[in-house]
Structures are given as structure tokens and as C-alpha cells.
Design brief:
Four copies of one chain form a homotetramer. With 377 residues, the first copy, chain A, is of the alpha+beta class. Chain A has a single domain, classed as 4-Layer Sandwich (Chorismate synthase, AroC fold). In chain A, strands 1-2-3-7-4 form a five-stranded antiparallel sheet, with helices on one face. In chain A, strands 9-8-10-16-11 form a five-stranded antiparallel sheet. In chain A, a hairpin with a 5-residue loop joins strand 2 and strand 3. In chain A, helix 1 packs across helix 3, helix 3 packs across helix 7 and helix 5 runs antiparallel to helix 7. The two termini of chain A are 30 Å apart. The model of chain A has no long low-confidence stretch (mean pLDDT 92). At the A-C interface, loops of A face loops of C. Strand 11 of chain A pairs antiparallel with strand 11 of chain B.
Amino acid sequence: MAGNTFGELFRVTTFGESHGAGLGCVIDGCPAGLPLTLEDIAAELRRRRPGGGGPSTSRTETDEPEILSGVFEGKTLGSPIAILVRNTNQRSGDYDNLKDVYRPGHADWTWEAKYGFRDHRGGGRSSARETLGRVAAGAVAKIFLTTLNIEIRAWTSAAAGIAVPGPGGKGFDWNEIEQNPLRIPHREIAQQALEKLEGIRAEGDSAGCAVSCLVKNLPPGLGEPVFDKLDARLAAAMLSLGAAKGIEFGAGFAAASGLGSELNDSPVSAPGLFPELPPASIPLPPNVPPVRWAHNNAGGVLGGISNGMPLEFTVAFKPVPSIGKKQQTVNRQGDARDLVIQGRHDACIAPRAAPVVEAMAALVIADLVLLQRGARL
Amino acid sequence: MAGNTFGELFRVTTFGESHGAGLGCVIDGCPAGLPLTLEDIAAELRRRRPGGGGPSTSRTETDEPEILSGVFEGKTLGSPIAILVRNTNQRSGDYDNLKDVYRPGHADWTWEAKYGFRDHRGGGRSSARETLGRVAAGAVAKIFLTTLNIEIRAWTSAAAGIAVPGPGGKGFDWNEIEQNPLRIPHREIAQQALEKLEGIRAEGDSAGCAVSCLVKNLPPGLGEPVFDKLDARLAAAMLSLGAAKGIEFGAGFAAASGLGSELNDSPVSAPGLFPELPPASIPLPPNVPPVRWAHNNAGGVLGGISNGMPLEFTVAFKPVPSIGKKQQTVNRQGDARDLVIQGRHDACIAPRAAPVVEAMAALVIADLVLLQRGARL
Amino acid sequence: MAGNTFGELFRVTTFGESHGAGLGCVIDGCPAGLPLTLEDIAAELRRRRPGGGGPSTSRTETDEPEILSGVFEGKTLGSPIAILVRNTNQRSGDYDNLKDVYRPGHADWTWEAKYGFRDHRGGGRSSARETLGRVAAGAVAKIFLTTLNIEIRAWTSAAAGIAVPGPGGKGFDWNEIEQNPLRIPHREIAQQALEKLEGIRAEGDSAGCAVSCLVKNLPPGLGEPVFDKLDARLAAAMLSLGAAKGIEFGAGFAAASGLGSELNDSPVSAPGLFPELPPASIPLPPNVPPVRWAHNNAGGVLGGISNGMPLEFTVAFKPVPSIGKKQQTVNRQGDARDLVIQGRHDACIAPRAAPVVEAMAALVIADLVLLQRGARL
Amino acid sequence: MAGNTFGELFRVTTFGESHGAGLGCVIDGCPAGLPLTLEDIAAELRRRRPGGGGPSTSRTETDEPEILSGVFEGKTLGSPIAILVRNTNQRSGDYDNLKDVYRPGHADWTWEAKYGFRDHRGGGRSSARETLGRVAAGAVAKIFLTTLNIEIRAWTSAAAGIAVPGPGGKGFDWNEIEQNPLRIPHREIAQQALEKLEGIRAEGDSAGCAVSCLVKNLPPGLGEPVFDKLDARLAAAMLSLGAAKGIEFGAGFAAASGLGSELNDSPVSAPGLFPELPPASIPLPPNVPPVRWAHNNAGGVLGGISNGMPLEFTVAFKPVPSIGKKQQTVNRQGDARDLVIQGRHDACIAPRAAPVVEAMAALVIADLVLLQRGARL
């Protein structure tokens, strides 16, 4: 309960500081018999790693994972899967000037207020590198969900004040997501946003972004009622990301000003309405009719339980707080100080955010899939 | 982990269906020695109860709580505090026509998809009455937080498409909140929204709303890093409410299109900037300087840990799905059916939502206060 | 975490003090669709209730349970099952002389050392009446296990220094267990022990006992490796009973002085060796051969996982600490005092212990059955 | 929940198989600011490591730990402490003949019954090497407990059928424990037991043992009532050790045949009775008088809560199941097979057991110390 474990049955504990020996995770509860390779994990870590030309930090960790336990002859054993990524490109000296000063927008002071002590090198545990353990664990969760045909896709839906049309919108292209450094599913907008971000970075500033996520083939029935609703779990997962400031599902904040007659999703029996939806991988109880839904304002979740429609949500991320512009702050003695942050920093987390959002969604869903096994006789 | 328990150290389990024998909660982990009366709980339940003239259901439960255990001679014992509210005004017959049909926007079908079975009377466990247990538990948490001088206030910040200015905005009046049935902190806007809601209700429709919450005197250092961040816990708490579709903290979704130089909250040493802030009820570690912050775009939380500024967040709620207008749906055999929902229903959850949001915030904060006791030697 | 919740997936929270309004439990995670009646619970509570002629307290609560939630039309809903037993025969005045004094062998002083405060009436939460909630929850667990053909039987295997032969031993009679107030499976020994206990009671003293338990038809594979082994969970369950002082499995303490060549249980392929064993209710993985075992020194558990043999363990209980003999103690001021405890007390917990042991075993096994559903793809 | 995590606030997750890349643990919830060195951990691992001349396996791992995270400038950060011990002396080939056969007394078959799959090399996760992670974590817990003056000492109290007098008994010598390979606190008996074990080993057999543990300076008030009693937690901890078959506290099984008048521990006010007891490190509530106790039949725990007396318990361990003698078993096809186990195996776990028991006791107590911080206002 000390905050570094996530999930109940598919259960992940992460560890590691930005400039310590390494970061990683222990996954407890992954079902036995799942085929798993090192490359499954390495591939997701590469997606999370900042690229060359984009608006990300130029720190180039190789981020090579090692599986320490839990896999034997290419399959999961049922025992804990420990994964380690060593820190190899540490330039702790970059942070010496930050030892006695609290960076605006960062967790430096709050961490000390909590623990009386912090690792000032690169933010320590509150660094964005902390997400390495999440992505490694999420990679395993994804492999598990693949056995149920569940597919999770996240993309940058807004960056530096430039919005991107959603799925079905003009120019939206699933295939484009992994083709540009910002993971924007629209080539022209991606180019436009990249240029704007370059300008922002050149001024020593940073920009916020939004990431949307869609989960296809989610079987109905996932999510525990009351406190552990599907959307409640996802909200916790996403707001646990350092820079997240908000989340909305389906119609989201717009629902607050809508009418019930417009927003209620209705079950419909008409077969063919959503022909792209395959049979659910977890069968319905025998006496419950399969249904489709006329709309998806709910974003795939009713009463906290998946309804068989695509799960849809969007997360808002604030700008990266490490900026080159001069800022006011105070030092450890409580005296006012000017601060110019040096070192390698992202101008926008968009490039890395989508894989991390996917990883967290995979962890939530894997856990709920296992919990669902106990729902009925 | 089956979803009806919330919190780790201040730990609440709720139970009960809308039309069963009763609803309630068991609170485990409330510190011993806390003065607690039945009226503390009854008062909060009355705030949650739909009033007479407003846009809420005309079902008039008295909702009298009984403390079954955990309190002796007016003080908490350290043992579980069980609270029961009996259902007394059940008109189950109102729901007979809903037995074999799935209401749009409700959890009827998803509940069956999960469990193969449901209590169709008033939504059963997925009824808004489920929040009774939360409010009773939240009342106890509030009493506990009062010992730390922590104050939680929620209000309706938008209803039926009408937005309300925030604290400090023109006409915002803390004292007005409990003076009108919508809990809108602005008399004229409240009147305007009430009239608009009456029109919506007259047409057999319903409307969404937003509820904002501000927590004062929150001591710095609350929130567990990584997965159990203060904002992550609050997000889970709020999205666990049946009709919630989104949450944002501080600048929220606007942060996604802002710049770091605008949004970074800076620590400042100037005493007097926030003279209204009292000394923190949980002392800072001896070597950490007290700070104030130049702005509060973060909404009181940095890196998932409270920074001593007021905690601020807003929750979006969809319209009540039970509407009088004719809707399309399917029945248990999967055949299309017309549906007109009868019975007593809210046109907007605004009147009840603020007390429930306060209760959930109190539960989150009480838990994190106790967890913080283990943070340092 | 605050100690009043047991189990992970089949999860029970109990509440209530001896002389408060009532005691009970909330069961979260019982699978939906299980047939459950009030009588299922009442019957187990009657077994736990002290009888008339035996060595138990003459306090005669009727202990009528009420199901507050979670059951609809005779079946479990998947939502929390809350059960309440009101205290009706409270004679709090019996305890007035104990308000300012600490009873030897009881938790009076330790409870105050922990909480600074206690309900002195009948031990409050540390009363034997606390087991009411356990037995009610165990009754539900038993019904669930019945669907898997799992059968749990406990009996008094020693009382007042008189030992009883085990299953297969001379005179052991399963049918006798419920026929005498001590639940001793041997008519003559039961009579002998009853007489000895009457003498002990007449002298104002009390006696210890041992309870053995055997679980038949336990499917192989139950128990989580490392910390949540089947035997570790059972040990926690049994030592959580107020008067328990020890537990042993299979050969138990005798194994500490034995040899591997004598004690190793060997798998054997000879069909027919244990013809009474039915097919396991949870099927073995397809590639794993069914086996029998040549002996059962392990008591049915190897490496913390059930092996298909009968689960066997014994719990040692100390004498009831409430005795009529004069004892030395101290009062709230720390001064020495003589104490003679009055009121209604058991001379030996044997009559009630077996149903409580069965209940706790049922809770452990129900939980592990559900956890096992997540073990494999 | 998947079995590899222990504790609530001082929370340990272990990982690793006997012949995989390595074993270790992640400790989440250790308070920040605790001085911790690599040598603190290495020293405990050396105590666990089988020595040269004794009755242990001749496999000589160096078992060098590495701290991967959570410690900065010699102090704990409050973030997870990950510790890794690489496997360096793996002779997996020793186990090739065990791939298709189930070893008697081992978890080979039960592991397959659970997961459908196992790592046959050295028992995989069910190897005694699994305790490495426990001992590493226990070393950190011990350092934490040292700040409270709490001292944990375990020793071999019986081995190969030879019993050892307890503390205060003739010849018992605390200083002898670490002086002989069996950790028997009595030089002559240790020599005698070693010789007997050599004979047993020479015959290809193995022997059981018992380990006793005493915890001094345990402050009163530790242990959560009802399910998480101090003794319940310790019972779970100890029975989670692979070869444990029983545990008893204080008078233990003897209490089952004793009388209340003999066994009740009475509080006494006479100062000076236990002059060796220092003031408790966690202060009593102001209104509760400090007491001493006339005896310690309870073993330091009343109602599941520590009473300030030394905590005393004994664990029974079965003989090591890997023996050289020919045994009967079955193979993966279910056919009968003779088996002679080769390789390096302990003849008795006595040499390693005491440090592991201490480690588990330290984990339990550290957790309960932190939980106690939430007990009172």
C-alpha cells in the first residue's frame, strides 16, 4: 500500500530512480503458460524511448531489459516475473545545481515535505524514467490480452494547442501513429505540431498535450461494481502518471452540459450495426442476449462495467515542467532564487505518452479480466 | 478486491441494494478515541437526501442511520464502525415493467453480462442509493479530518449547460451553497438553473452537471508516489461514482494546450502571500523550509503529493439516464422494445452530488493522512 | 489492513462488540448465482451457540441472523452479502466490576495499550462473540464449497487433558461429533471429558482443548506459492482465533524429530489405493497425470499447495481465561487487586470451537478456489 | 494476492527461481531516512548461506546482494528498495533426471497441478533458495527495528530428535548460537546433534528440526485485532516456509491440556520483577498504567496484541525431502519409478532455518509497528 504496487490479481510493483543502478518491475499473478520473449518487452521499451529528431530529450539510454525470473523455456511459470533495466547513460553532474533548490512545477519540494529527503538527480523516483517499469509490465499484460484478442491503441490527440480529429474524422490514419515522432494519427497535423514544438523548445519553453486511447474487442462484463469500476481503475491508472491533469470517458466533460435523451446509449438488437465487432472472448452468461449499442457516448462503460463497445478515453497532460527559461523559486534555506534548468529535457511528452497510456490500460484490463473469473459460479 | 472496499488504512466496505433490506458501510481503521455521534452521520445523510422542491426524485426516504458497532461512550473504539440505513419507502412494484428490459444508459445489461443475474428493483446495487454507505463513511472521515483542521467543500459548478463562476469569481458565495437545492454558490444562477431544469424535467428529460471541490488546510506531503498519488486516488474515488464521466485537477484539460512557462507553479518565500493559510497540521520535516506558491495551476498537487495549496478539482457527471421520454431498447430475448421509464427520478444529480463528492474526498484524504504516518522514521 | 477483513477474493469483513447493538459480517466476492437461504446461516450459528447442559456459558442468545443485502430471489447477486445478528441478551451490568481492572489472560490491558480505550463489557470486540461474524460468513463459504463437493469436518480431539483417537482410531465415530456437547467423536470419551470438565467448572477453573479438522475432496492445486501457501493461510486463520496457541499440519511437531525416509509422502500410480477419493472438482491440467499418495504425513499439502489427499490439521486452544477462582491483577491505577470473575462463562471452548474452525477453513479454501481461477491461461 | 507479496505497510515482494538469473526482493514502505548499507544485507545472507563443515548442501553460492534502488547517500529514500542476488553456481544438469519424475515430499507434482508447468531445475521457485529474498528483506526490517531497540533471536531448539533446553535451561548459552553450524545454543548438544546428523546423511537420509524464536523489547500494543493478530501474522509467516509443519506460542500445545488457573498470565504492579525490561519504545497511551506480568505462558501476546513480555514461539520443520535413499514415485506418464536423488542437499535445514525465521519475524513486526501508527488519534 506504499504506492508502488498496482493491481490486485495481475499485480505489478515497480522500482528504481532516474540515476540509480536501474529501474524495473515485478509482475505477480501473470497466468502460467503464456509465451513471452525478451523482445516482447524490449519492443515496448523502444516505443517509450525518446527518438532522435523529435521534441524529446537527447538523453539516449539503450534501455535494454533483462528478465530475472518467472519465465522458463519461453513461457511464464506463474511465479513473479522480474524485469530489470539498468541505467547506463547517467550524467548525474547535470543535476548538481539542483541539489539545494526546488524546481517549479516539479515534485522536489513535495517529495521532501513527505520524506524529509530526496534523490535530487534527475528527479529520482519522480522522474519520467519511472515509467520504464510500467511499460515493461504493460508489455507482458499486452501479450496476455492478445490471447483474448483485446487490442489497445493510444495516440496524441492534441499537442502544443493543436487538436487532432478523432477516429473517423477527416485525415485520421491509424497507420500514421507510429510513423511520426509525436504519434499523431494525421501526417499534416503532425508536421505542423512538430514545427510549433520546435519553436517552443527554441524559446526554452515546453507544451502540454492530450492522449486518447481506444480499446477494441473488450469483452462485456469487465469492471468491478462500486469502487473498482473499469473507468475508476483507468482514471487511477492515468492520473498516476506524473504530468496527467485530467481524464474523460466517452462524451466526457461535454456530458455535463448535455441531455439524457441525447446521451443515453441504447441497446439495439439489429445485427450488422457494428459488423466489425467480433464475438466476445469471454462468453456471456447463457441467459443474457448479446446486444449492440446505438451510440457510444458512454465510451464503452456503463455502471463501471464494459458493455462491448470500444472503450474510449482521453488524458490531459500538462507541459513538461523542466524548461530553459529563467524561473523564480526558493532554495533549501527558503530564500528566493532565479533558476535556469539545464540538461536534456523533453519539450512535450507526446512522443512517449502514448505507449505509457497503453501500458497502464493493459495493466488495468489484465487485472479486471482475471477478477472477472471470480464473478460467477 | 471484489470492488466494494475503498482505502487501505481508513478502509470502507459498503453494502446494500436500492430495494433490499438496507444499505450501509463498515469502516475499518478509523483511529480510536475520535468523538462521534449519530447526528454527525445523520446530518450528512440529510444533505445527500433529495429535497422537496428541487429537481430530485420525490422518493422520500428518511434515511435514518444506526451505528451497529465501533463506538462506545461517544468515542470510536478502534474496532469496525458498522452503520446501517434501512430501506423504508420501497415501491418495488414501480420496477416490475423493467424486469425484462434493459434501460438505456443504465447498468442493467452490463450487470447481467457480468453476473448473469441482477436485482432489477431500482437498479439494485447500481442505484444512486448505493452512495448512502459512502456518505455515512465520509461523515466519519470528515470528523477525523476536522481534528486536523482540514475542510472540504464541494458545489455545483455547472448544471443543465449553465456554468457558475469559480471561487473569487463574480457573485460566487460560499454561504449560498447550502441555501439552494442545486448547491450552486450563486443565487441568481441557481434560480436560473432551477428554472431550466424544471423545463427539462417537464419534457421528461434530464441534464448533466459538474461539481467542483476545494480542500483547504491540506497539509503538505499527502499522497503516495507512483500509483497511489493524491490525484490518482481522488480520480478513482470520483470516477467510481455512477454517473461520473471525467475529472480534472487545477488547470486540468486547459493544461494540455498551455506552456510550461505559464503553468509551472513556483515556490515563493514571500510570507504574507497567502496569509489565509494556517500552519500545516502535520509538521514539515525539520530540515524542509515552509514555502508558498505563486499560483495554483497544479490544483494543490505536485508529483502526486499535496503542496500545501488548496486542492482543487472538478468532476463531470452525465445526465441521469432514467428519463420519461420514449426510448428504444431491447428485452431479455434481444427483441427491440419501446421504453418509457416511470417512477420517481432526479432530473439532475446536482443536488445530491456535492455531498457525495465531499464524502469520497474525505475518504481519500483520511486514508492518505494515515498512510503518511509511515513515511518517515 | 486494519485487521477486520480476511481473504482476497472471497473477502469477509466482520464487525461488532459483545455488548453493542449487534455483530455481523460483510462478504464481498461471493460468486453470483449461488443458492443461499437464511436457514443456511442460522443453522451454523446454532452449532456455534452454547448448548444447555454442557460446559458452556449459560448466556442464551438466540443469535438470529438477518441478511441485509446481496441475496435476491434466493440467489447471491455478486454484490456484498451483509449479515447482522443483534445482541439481545446483554447483561452489561455483569461487567461493571471489570471496568477498572485488567483480567488475567485476557486482552483487556493490551487493548488499552493499543487504543488507549476499550469497551469493557464482555471483552467488547475481543469477546468470543466476535466469532459470530466468522461463522455467518463461513456458512456462506461452505455453501459455495458444497458446489465443488468439498467437505470440512472439525471435532474436539482433546479436552481437559483427555485425548481422543483420530479418524480410523478405535472408537472414532464421525456420527458422534454432533451428538454430544463437546463435539468429541467418541461417546465414552465424550462422557468422561464432560464429567471432568464439570469438576473443573465446579472449582471455578477452566480447561484447554484441541480441535482437529479434516477436509475431504479438496482438489489439487489450491494454495498460492511462497507467502500465501494453503497451510500459511490456514495457520493465520486459526491463530486469529482468540484462544489459539498453536497449529500443526499432518505429522506436525512429530515431523521435527523424524527422518525424511519415513516422512516423505510418495506419489503412487496404483489406482484403487484410495478408492474413496472422487475425481477432483477442479480438473488437472491436461498434461499432468492424476496421482495418489502412499501416506499423508504432509497433511494434504506439499509446497503450500493441496495434493489431493485429505487436508489435516490440529489447533491447540488455551483454557478460557475467565475463571471463578480468585486471581491477582492490577487496576487502572496500577495497584494490585484481587479478582473473582463473575457472570456466565464457558469452562472450555470445545463445544463452540469446532464450528468456528470449520468456518475459518471454509473461508480460506473458498478464497483459494477463486484465486486458483487466475493461475493458468 | 498472487502469493509473492508479504505485509501491508512494510511490504515485501520476492522473486526468483533456484536456477534462473537471480533472486531478490522489492521492499515498499520502508520509512525514509533509515541508514542502510549493502553490508547490512550481505551479513544476513551469509548467515543464511550453508557453511562448510555442517550438514548443509555443498553448493557454495557467494550470494552477493546488489541494491538496485531506494537507497541514496546511505539512507533509505522512502521509495522501493530492490535487492538482487544473482545465481552464479548453477549446475542445472544435476536436475536433468528429475525433469519427468515427481520427487516424494516435494512440490513437483502440486506445482504442476496448479500451473500445468514447472521449472524442474532445483525446485524452481519452490527451492529453499527462494528464502534469499526473504532474508534480504528481513535484513532491512531488522535495521528498522533496531531503531526501536527490538531484538530478534532464533535458534535450533531440536534437531534429529535431540531436544535442547530453552532459555534459562541448563547449558543454554546465547553466545553459542552463532558458534556452531547447527545454531544450537548449547555446545555439547550441538556436537552430539552434528554427529547424529552426519550418520543420517551418510545413510542418505535427512532429519527434521525445530527452531525457537524470542523477541525482546517488543513494545506493547502491536498486532491488529481479529484477523491480523500478532500471532496470526507470525503463524502465516512461519508456515509460509517450505518445510514448516507447525507453530506454537508460549505454552503452545501444552496449553490444550492445562487449566486456566495455571496458565492465565496476570498483570502485576511490582516494579523490579522484570528489571531487564527497558521502557517501551512506543509510549503507552497516557491513561494506561505500565504493567509487568507474573508469567509468560501466553508467549508475549494476549488477544493478538503484544503485552510487553518477550515474544516466544517455536516452529517445527520436517526433514529435507531430498534424500539419497531409493524412493518410489511416478513419472509424468503416471508410471511407477524408483528414484535416487543426487546432487547437493542439506541433511537438515537447522543451519539455515534460524536466520530465515528471524527474517520473517522482523518483517511481521516491522509491518505491525507501522500499522500501530494509525491506531490512535
